[in-house]
Amino acid sequence: MRDCGGLILRIAILGVGSIGSLIAAQLAKTDADLLLYTRGANGEVLATNGLLFTNLDGEIEHFPADRWVVFEGEIPEPLFSCVDVAIICGKSNSTATLAAVAEEMMRPNAIAISVQNGLGHSERLVGRLGRHRVLAGCTTHGAMRGGYGEVTWTGRGAIRMASLFESELGPGDSRVMDLIDILDDAGLDPEWEFDADEMLWHKLLLNVAINPLAAICGVRNGELLAQPELHEQAFSTMLEAAQVASAEGVDLSDFDCLAELNRVLEATAANRCSMLQDVMAGRVTEIDSLCGEVVRRGEELGIATPLNQQLLTLVKGIEHSTKTG
After folding, report:
1. Sign of the torsion angle spanned by Cα atoms 233, 234, 237, 238
2. Cα-atom radius of gyration of the chain, to the nearest Å?
3. Which of 17, 176, 245, 275 is positioned for an S-S bond with 211, CB 3.0–4.6 A?
4. Separation of alpha carbons 270 and 219, rounded Å
5. 110-121 pLDDT, tens per residue?
6. What is the dihedral of CA 63, 69, 74, 79, to 10 degrees?
7. What's the number of CA atoms in the CB half-sphere (13 Å) around residue 237?
8. How many helical (H) and strand (E) elements, i.e. helices and strands, does the chain have?
9. Phi, psi for residue 194 in degrees, rounded to 5
10. Are residues 183 and 222 in the same domain?
11. SS3 for 136-189, per residue?
12. Domain coverage including residue 68
């Protein structure tokens, strides 16, 4: 366990899907004390057999079950107010539940960070935990879960973070520096950003361009670059969302949409994006916090978003057919 100014740094990872498993595996290589909040068969395997982790070099590592404490449902009393950092990794529809779990587990001076896809998660955490305890975040690491208790690191990226409010949780705060240090020790490449809105919108623009289309077509990311009609659709969807971001006052002048889209598609060509993984597994997707947020915000601003609306409708239709099929 890590000693930070006389305090043990205890980290709770709330939601242990592909990204949560990746973060857990890398943090398990440090001396951090880890708690994993998950559910179902995956949680049972993590609690009994541990985690099989395939790193970027193809090497398989095994992290035994005694490396962490796994729990679900109601929080056991010994875990009340014991956590220094809560990393929210669960799907967007679980944010409210995970925020309540974080509230019970966090020490009074603890911090929480959401690395979920989409918009609005950090604001929901602020509503539950307070603005002095929440960082905005996102990750560009790629991961793919295999069977229960198995995950593969498919692409190196970064964990980016920013303050939602200028007066709260700056990079000089010792709590933030402890988090950055442990993520750096874990090889997760933490990066501090000075504009939370720009950071989150940059990630969302790539997500709405890639994830829904890949999920609907059932293709790996590289196909969106290889097939001109898919590439054009992805880029057009991205530009439509960028209009909404600009109308909200987000400065995109330094963000080249086409260059960024092509760079990510090339770097992740062999990846199945998280939404495709969800569709293949019959899980609820994050479409509401991606295209759904673009549509909702566009309506508020009087901006038409037909491409994002179409993708939202199609993915929701796939979700419905999976449930009823």
Report:
1. negative
2. 19
3. 275
4. 10
5. 999 999 999 989
6. -150
7. 30
8. 12, 13
9. -100, 0
10. no
11. EEEECCEEEECCCCEEEEEECCCEEEEECCCCCCCCCCHHHHHHHHHHHHCCCC
12. 2-193
Distance CA 235, CA 243 (A): 13
76 DSSP assignment? P
Q: Which of 193, 223, 240 is the last residue of a domain?
A: 193
Token digits for 317? 């239709």
Asked if residue 144 and residue 207 are part of one domain, the reply reads: no
**Partners of residue 3 on adjacent β-strands:** 8
**Nearest-angstrom CA–CA distance, 313 and 252:** 27
Cβ atoms of 315 and 212 within 8 Å: the answer is yes
Domains: count for the chain: 2
* Alpha carbon separation from 3 to 20, 83, 135, 182 (Å, rounded): 23, 14, 22, 11
Burial zone of 210 (CB within 10 Å; 0-12 exposed, 13-18 middle, 19+ buried): buried
The string of pLDDT tens digits covering residues 79-106 is 999 999 999 999 888 999 999 999 999 9
Cα 72 versus chain centre, distance: 20
On whether the CB atoms of residues 269 and 219 are closer than 8 A, the answer is no
What pLDDT digit, counting tens, does each position of 235-245 carry? Answer: 999 999 999 99
Residue 239, judged by CB atoms within 10 A of its CB (0-12, 13-18, 19+), counts as middle
Query: 160 with 218, same domain?
Result: no
DSSP H or E segment with residue 106? strand 106-114
What is this structure's pTM? 0.92
